[in-house]
Amino acid sequence: MTNIQKTQITEMRDDGFGYTTIATKMGLTKDCVRAYCRKHGLTGKRSPTHVVIDANKGYCKTCGTKLIHTVGKRKKQFCSDGCRMDWWNSHADQVQRKAYYTFTCACCDKIFKVYGNAKRKYCSHECYINDRFPKEKDS
Questions:
Q1: Which domain holds residue 72?
Q2: Residues 59-67: what's their mean pLDDT?
Q3: Which pLDDT band, with edges at 50, 70 and 90, does 51 fall under?
Q4: 113: part of which helix (H) or strand (E)?
Q5: Residue 26 CA neighbour count, 13 Å, CB half
Q6: To 5 degrees, how large is the angle CA 5–CA 8–CA 83?
Q7: What is the mean pLDDT of the chain?
C-alpha cells in the first residue's frame, strides 16, 4: 500500500465511508483496508443504513483523490485531464456516441463512416491529395 493510498483511506474513512466502499474504490481488499484502519485508530460507528454514500461524490473517478470544487461551477468528476482521459479510454463501452456520419468520398466514391466531423469529404488523406492536386499527364 502506497502513502497516497493510506492518505486516501484516511480521508475517505473520515468522510464516513465503510471498508467495502473504500476497498472497491481503491482497488484493495476489504481485509487490507480494515487492517490499516484498525492499526491507525480509524474504526468507528457504522453509518446508518438509510444514508446512501456515493463513493464517486467528491473523489476522482480514476485515482480516488479528493476533489476541491469551485463554488458556482459544475461538480468535478476527475482531478486532472490525464485521469479523465484514462477513465474514458477504459470505459469506452459506456459512451453513447451519437455523432456518426456516413459519406461518399469525393475522390474514389467509396462510402465511409466517421465520428464527429459532419463536413468531411474524403475517406483518407491520400484521396484528398489526389483530388486537390491531380498529377499532370504527359500529352
A1: 3-94
A2: 81
A3: very low
A4: strand 111-115
A5: 28
A6: 80
A7: 82
